[in-house]
Design brief:
Blueprint lengths: L1 E5 L2 E10 L2 E10 L22 E3 L31 E6 L7 E7 L17 H7 L2 E5 L4 H5 L3 H4 L9 H16 L5 E11 L1 H9 L11 E5 L9 H14 L15 H16 L22 H6 L7 E7 L4 H5 L9 H12 L7 H12 L5 H24 L12 E6 L18 H5 L8 H4 L5 H17 L17 E5 L3 E5 L3 H8 L8
Helix pairs in contact: 6-7, 10-12, 11-16
């Protein structure tokens, strides 16, 4: 057992061996008050210091979520509770020198599921191998984290649709106040996350209240464009009320309904939206035009918000394969072109221009793609890769006062052998490489024991170097900045730099001109 005094209070943790190093582990530390009762749908309330010694030897509860949700094979069921879900875990090497870089992980899960207690996010190996203090946080999910109630409940609920993001900011404030007690450097904090976690980071980059809370950011399969406008979020809220059996005058009952009842309505809403899209259903997202997010994140980033933050961002080659392969259809399903056109239309590509995407993809592949391949690539480009390209480009102009953060890009291309190789370099496949869990049961479905440890060493080493210095360069890897040439690290069995990979597809999206409004 390990006992530690922090500004928040004394805590009891445990120790374990990882990568030949003794790591101190503290689980389930509360960073905010329970977001239940009077705190439901409201901004987080900082956790009060505690008396005595807090037992932090077991993981805390996850945020409320529907455990039957379809999830990547890396995920595991988890226990949830509205009370106590705003907690964080810390893995810290011995205090044997200068303060260490701090890496704060924000988990993914479509803003609907996930937890810092998931085994695939265990930070012991990465903390040991990289010599960093690693923190993993929980935040509110689904309706409890994103339901837009400004019009329904009035004062006090203006930011209910961004409660999850405000949770993340509160966790970062806790880290800045307390991480020194764990040997971490509060002036060297890197946020990193995957999928919805990376999208959260992309949004944080465009939130004025986030400035100064972190110094570097790593976005794995993320975007700064996952948001809704107030009228769109209000439409979602109206549907949610209906599914709860409520009308507008009775909206206050949302404050007292059991969390399980809210999850039932949320599940029904997810099914309704899933029937309208072939990509991942995303019923709950941040809302712009709100106090904490006054404008689209990319607009704030272009104006210089968080311009001094160093950014490492990238995607996996086959981000859309789960969405396609987990919905079996005939090999040449005639519906694939229409589905691909619908995915592209949601990304702002008029139907008349959709054939141009297929032509661009054919040029990149040097062959004619099949219908399923077009759909998978359309999802990957529309939801992940092109938003990442736009984010990197938005940060290219010189920052105010010359304090420009550096930008680095990657494309992960190692193909999973799962399902006969059909998944390719699929969504979430990069996670066990970064966390050094290639041999873990959570990764077995995707890696099949064939994943190269050398690539895990490369990625975890580069991520840690970036957290330490703002550059992913290591002794064995020279990683240039993104720059005007759009230099991108291709991550496979080996690592190599390529200028503007798949440039024809990027050029297609850059040339899209939406049809004029009627």
């Amino acid at each position: 057992m390990t006992r530690l005094s922090t500004p928040a209070g004394s805590i009891l943790g445990s120790s374990l061996e990882a990568e030949g190093t003794t790591i101190r582990r503290f689980l389930g530390i509360p960073y905010a008050a329970p977001p239940s009762g009077a705190n439901r749908f409201r901004p987080p309330v900082p956790a009060a210091p505690w008396a005595g010694v807090l037992d932090c030897t077991a993981a805390g509860p996850a945020a409320p979520q529907n455990l039957e949700n379809p999830a990547p094979p890396l995920s595991r069921p988890r226990k949830w509770s509205e009370d106590g879900c705003l907690n964080l875990n810390i893995w810290a090497p011995p205090e044997d020198g200068p303060a260490r870089p701090v890496m704060v992980w924000i988990h993914g899960g479509a803003f609907l599921l996930g937890a810092n207690s998931d085994a695939m996010y265990d930070g012991a190996r990465l903390a040991a191998a990289a010599g960093v203090v690693l923190v993993s946080i929980n935040y509110r999910l689904g309706a409890l984290g994103f339901l837009h109630l400004a019009d329904l409940l009035g004062p006090g609920y203006e930011d209910s649709s961004n409660a999850a993001l405000l949770d993340q900011l509160e966790a970062l404030r806790w880290v800045r106040r307390n991480i020194g007690a764990f040997g971490g450097d509060p002036e060297n904090i890197t946020v990193f996350g995957e999928s919805a976690g990376a999208a959260a980071i992309g949004t944080l980059l465009g939130m004025p209240s986030s400035e100064g809370l972190f110094h570097r950011a790593i976005m794995q399969s993320g975007t700064a464009e996952r948001y809704r406008r107030p009228d769109e979020s209000a439409h979602i809220s109206a549907q949610f009320l209906e599914l709860c059996g409520l009308d507008k005058p009775s909206a206050k009952e949302l404050l007292t309904l059991p969390a399980g009842r809210l999850l039932e309505a949320q599940a029904a809403l997810e099914k309704r939206i899933a029937a309208e899209t072939y990509a991942v259903p995303l019923p709950f997202q941040p809302t712009v035009g709100t106090p904490s997010l006054p404008e689209p994140p990319l607009d704030g980033i272009r104006r210089g918000l968080n311009s001094g933050v160093d950014l490492l961002a990238g995607t996996n080659l086959n981000e859309g394969s789960f969405a396609v392969e987990m919905r079996p259809a005939a090999p040449e399903d005639p519906g694939y072109p229409d589905r691909a056109a619908a995915v592209l239309a949601a990304a702002g590509v008029p139907s008349a221009q959709a054939p141009g995407y297929t032509e661009a993809l054919a040029r990149v592949l040097s062959r004619e793609p099949g219908g399923k391949e077009i759909l998978e690539a359309a999802i990957a480009d529309s939801v992940y890769r092109q938003p990442t390209n736009r984010l990197l480009a938005a940060r290219q102009p010189a920052a105010p006062n010359g304090a420009a953060g550096r930008n680095f890009a990657y494309l992960f291309t190692w193909r999973s052998p799962a399902m006969g190789g059909k998944l390719g370099a699929c969504h979430a496949l990069d996670i066990p490489f970064v966390f050094r869990h290639l041999d873990g049961p959570e990764a077995a479905f995707l890696t099949r024991g064939a994943a190269p440890q050398s690539l895990s060493n490369t990625m975890s080493g580069a991520w840690a170097a970036f957290a330490r210095t703002g550059s992913p360069d290591t002794a064995g890897l020279e990683w240039p900045e993104f720059g005007d040439a759009r230099r991108t690290m291709m991550l496979d069995d080996g690592a190599r730099v390529e200028d503007d990979p798949r440039s024809g597809i990027r050029g297609f999206f850059a040339g899209v001109r939406p049809l004029p409004a009627n």
